[in-house]
TrEMBL record:
Subunit-level organization: Heterodimer with TRMT112; this heterodimerization is necessary for the metabolic stability and activity of the catalytic subunit BUD23. Interacts with GRIP1.
Protein name per its UniProtKB record: 18S rRNA (guanine-N(7))-methyltransferase
Designated gene of the protein: Bud23
UniProt family annotation: Belongs to the class I-like SAM-binding methyltransferase superfamily. BUD23/WBSCR22 family.
Pfam family, one: Methyltransf_11
Start and end residues of each 18S rRNA (guanine(1575)-N(7))-methyltransferase Bud23 C-terminal domain: 176-250
Biological process terms in GO annotation: rRNA (guanine-N7)-methylation
Catalytic activity: a guanosine in 18S rRNA + S-adenosyl-L-methionine = an N(7)-methylguanosine in 18S rRNA + S-adenosyl-L-homocysteine
Domain of life: Eukaryota
Entry GO terms, CC: cytoplasm; nucleolus
Amino acid sequence: SSRVVEIQSQMSERAVELLGLPEDRPCLLLDVGCGSGLSGDYISEEGHYWIGMDISPAMLDVAVEREVEGDLLLADVGHGIPFRPGMFDGCISISAVQWLCNADKKSHSPPKRLYRFFSTLYTALARGSRAVLQLYPENSEQLELITAQAMRAGFTGGMVVDYPNSAKAKKFFLCLFVGTSGTLPKGLGTTCANEEPHQAKFTNERTRFRNAKGKSVKKSRDWILEKKERRRRQGKEVRADTKYTGRKRRPHF
């Protein structure tokens, strides 16, 4: 659906932004779990080149039909990344890496498959480059498993969480550095300076202002701030947030 495509495109843009690519030259990127090549379209638009890997022949057929500009490879990344050392200037992945946590076959060991993926990815990336992997973790154990295997493989970095306080907009980006420890970018929508953006917190308790559907209660301060934040992202003029934002007015007599 067009909504899914839109979200996919936004996440691709954000992932590429988090790569912090040089602006003066085209780069070669790896797209892990490239599917029908939606992220690739954005990479091409930005003037970079890409190679996409995916395990699904059907999705790659769609990419071919769409005449995407990247090269495509049918492969299971759990078997490793089959490219020569230092070939890529960066790697992105949208909603794919969490699948490596599933044991689809008897022989599959998620920790081993994750380690194989990360260690071969580390080798295929140029020194000083980054991998930005957006993923949908099922729980904190999955996040820890994925992050631990990435670190074991030599990466530094960690989790960047965009909009950590929003049920719908919250997104996890595993931001990994090769051979240099950069500073972890800030997650979008993290307002408080004292929050630790890379510490993904999973809580079962309900947040104060959420109603049954997980949305902020209409007209509450959170709801207003989220709405203003959305409008800012759309490039609209929005008044600055102050301590008066969303404050109840006295009743008029």
